[in-house]
Design goal:
- The longest helix has 19 residues.
- Helices cover 30% and strands 19% of the residues.
- The protein has 219 residues and is an alpha/beta fold.
- It has a single domain, classed as Vaccinia Virus protein VP39 (Rossmann fold, 3-Layer(aba) Sandwich), CATH 3.40.50.
- It starts with a strand and ends in an 8-residue tail after the last strand.
- A hairpin with a 5-residue loop joins strand 8 and strand 9.
- It contains five helices and nine strands; from the N terminus they run E-H-H-E-H-E-H-E-E-E-E-H-E-E.
Length: 219
C-alpha cells in the first residue's frame, strides 16, 4: 500500500501547562547532558524542536486523523514525543536502543508522573534487516514477507509492547540524515492501512504521511 502525504497546518498553539512543565524538565535534562559532555558517548542523539512536535501531534489529534490512540516513537531519545503523546491522551510507547537514553527517559516519565513505556530495543522488528546503500539505508524484508504478514506468519511485534505493529495508530520518528526514505519503507511494510507517520525534518518541520489503499503515492 502506498503512502499519501497530508498537509500539516499546526498553527501557533502554545502547549498547555502540564505539557509545558514536562517539556521544561526534559529541556533541562538534555541541556545537562550536553553541558556535561555526556552526549559524546551517544553521538547519534540530536534533540528535536519539542514545540514543533507538540503542534504536529496536537494537529493530527484535533483533526482526528489517527484511527485510535496508540502511539509509537522510533528512536525515542529522552522520550519527548512519547511524553507529549501520552499527555494528549495516547497509550504511548518509545523505542530506544541506547540503554542510557532509555533509562533517562523512563526516569523523566516517573518524575513527571506521566504514564508511558520505553522499550530498550531496536525499532527494526525481528526478521527485518537494513543495509547501507547509495543515498541512505535500504530495508530488507523477511523472506516471503508481504503486507500485513501474509505468507510471513504474523504481523511484526516489539517485545514488551502489547500490540502488534498493525495496531499502532500514530508513529513518530526523527530520522538520521539519509534515512527518511528508509523510515517510510519500514512504516509502509509494518503499519496498517490508515496509520499515520510523523517525520521530523532537519529544518524543524514535520511531515505527515498516511498509509492508504489505492493509487495515491508519496509526493
Amino acid at each position: 500500500m502506498p503512502l499519501s502525504q497530508i498537509s500539516l497546518a499546526p498553527g501557533t498553539t502554545a502547549p498547555p501547562g502540564r505539557i509545558a512543565a514536562f517539556l521544561a524538565d526534559a529541556e533541562m535534562r538534555i541541556d545537562h547532558l550536553f553541558d556535561s559532555e555526556q552526549n559524546k558517548r551517544i553521538p547519534r542523539f540530536i534533540p528535536s524542536d519539542p514545540l514543533a512536535i507538540f503542534r504536529a501531534i496536537d494537529f493530527v489529534t484535533r483533526e482526528d486523523l489517527p484511527l485510535g490512540r496508540v502511539f509509537c516513537e522510533w528512536g525515542s531519545g529522552f522520550g519527548v514525543a512519547t511524553g507529549i503523546a501520552a499527555l494528549l491522551g495516547y497509550e504511548s510507547y518509545g523505542i530506544e536502543i541506547e540503554p542510557s537514553l532509555a533509562a533517562a527517559s523512563q526516569s523523566l516519565a516517573t518524575d513527571q508522573g506521566i504514564e508511558f513505556t520505553i522499550l530498550n530495543t531496536s525499532y527494526i522488528p525481528e526478521g527485518f534487516e537494513s543495509y547501507a546503500a547509495v543515498g541512505g539505508e535500504e530495508l530488507v524484508l523477511p523472506e516471503n514477507f508481504s503486507d500485513h504478514g501474509d505468507g510471513f506468519g504474523q504481523v511484526p511485534i516489539y517485545d514488551g509492547m502489547p500490540y502488534s505493529t498493525d495496531e499502532i495508530d500514530l508513529f513518530f520518528v526523527y530520522p538520521w540524515p539519509g534515512e527518511q526514505e528508509f523510515m517510510q519503507q519500514l512504516f509502509e511494510a509494518i503499519a496498517t492501512e490508515g496509520a499515520i507517520l510523523l517525520t521530523y525534518l532537519e529544518d524543524g518541520e514535520v511531515s505527515v504521511h498516511q498509509k492508504v489503499a489505492g493509487e495515491d503515492e508519496i509526493d
